[in-house]
Specification:
Length: about 400
């Protein structure tokens, strides 16, 4: 029970942190949370080292999730609004590469700590080690300004112009003021930073497709990444932890390739194609028996590559779906939906494997990927080359 609760705590915190912080970020600005959440994250990470009871760790993991959820909404929104339109895809894809690199390094560092830490509590060193990247990121964020698009949307154009001149240069054109907020069904203007406004007629379809895309992408991504050693062992690979390390390294390679192609393909083509390719690669692992071990490793590695390349879209596409006044709120809702998918997949996958076998679990993930491809083909709007203030 405690293993399940501790595993779910950070995901639950991420869900609530991203869902409810987005509205706050759209009201008070991106910078306050972006600038100060990493020191808090470092302090909470270090506190895990001294936990003496399971409930204490549960509370810390929940708080860590809340802080990270808020950072997801703030950092993705701020970086997207500071990026030039023509290179926005590539610049935002750097976040996907950094995420994959952190994920891979965490896997390797955790394994090394488990092998070398003295005493009976190596997990305390694992969890406390997350304070190191948090402090490095906090230092890197010093001097990053507020979003000029948010300032203009709040009627602070002179402040935005001064910031652009000081931080970026006089050659940059000031973004135009965003269009007025559309009215709600009652006739009143839609409130900036309101979760209810996400489901007003003007934004409803975009909110739904952002959540569906992120949910259908993250379910196989998290399930396969979290349980890669166990899955490989179930498929007959004997050195499963080595296979898991290869899988995680290919997540990093896939993110780099995703960055190189994201501005060369239309968003819709990348969305639908990435879901379809991942489904085709996973399908043989679900329906075929007694595959050669070499082929299993090749398919699993190619799947890691495809999923990670598609993950670059998670750092670009949701931001492009929403206007400035609602961007953090929309991104927060999409991230919250992804945490639902991550929670479902990481909980259900070992249960399904135990009860029905590994191939049933793989087939279920194929259906999730196919649903994502169909939904994006039918409903996802094209956002390539979009000016973020033009929605």
């Amino acid at each position: 029970m405690w293993l399940g609760l501790l595993g779910a705590a950070s995901l639950a915190g991420l869900f609530f942190g991203s869902l409810f912080s987005g509205a706050l970020i759209d009201r008070i600005g991106r910078h306050p949370i972006f600038a100060f959440d990493m020191p808090l994250l470092a302090a909470l990470s270090l506190a895990q080292f001294w936990t003496a009871a399971a409930w204490q760790l549960l509370l810390l993991r929940l708080l860590l999730g809340l802080v990270l959820g808020a950072d997801y909404a703030a950092s993705k929104t701020l970086v997207s609004e500071l990026a030039p339109r023509k290179s926005r895809g590539r610049m935002m894809s750097v976040l996907a590469i950094a995420w994959a690199a952190g994920y891979t390094i965490a896997y390797l560092v955790g394994y090394l700590i488990a092998q070398t830490a003295s005493g009976g509590r190596p997990w305390t060193w694992m969890l406390a080690s997350s304070a190191v990247p948090a402090l490095l990121v906090a230092a890197a964020r010093l001097g990053v300004p507020e979003s000029p698009r948010w300032l203009i949307a709040k009627g602070r154009a002179q402040e935005a112009a001064a910031m652009i001149a000081a931080k970026i240069g006089p050659h940059v054109t000031l973004p135009t003021a965003p269009a007025p907020a559309p009215a709600t069904s009652s006739g009143a203007p839609a409130e900036s930073g309101s979760l209810r406004a996400l489901f007003a007629p003007a934004l409803r379809s975009r909110t739904v497709i952002a959540c569906v895309f992120y949910l259908c992408h993250i379910m196989p991504y998290f399930a396969l990444s979290t349980f890669s050693p166990r899955i490989l062992a179930s498929l007959g690979v004997h050195n499963a932890y080595f296979g898991g390390a290869v899988y995680n390294l290919l997540l990093l390679v896939g993110a780099v390739v995703g960055m190189s192609v994201i501005d060369r393909l239309t968003r819709r083509r990348f969305l639908v194609g990435s879901f379809a390719v991942a489904a085709v690669l996973l399908l043989p692992l679900g329906i075929l028996h007694d595959l050669p071990i070499t082929l299993v490793i090749v398919l699993f590695a190619a799947l890691a590559f495809a999923l990670s390349a598609a993950d670059t879209l998670a750092f670009v596409y949701p931001q492009e779906l929403f206007p400035t006044r609602m961007r953090a709120t929309g991104v927060g809702a999409a991230v919250a939906a992804s945490r639902i998918g991550a929670s479902i997949s990481t909980f259900l996958l070992p249960v399904v494997v135990e009860s029905f076998g590994i191939r049933t679990a793989m087939t279920g993930l194929v259906l999730v990927l196919a649903a994502g491809a169909l939904a994006c083909y039918r409903y996802a709007p094209e956002t390539s080359g979009l000016k973020l203030g033009s929605q």
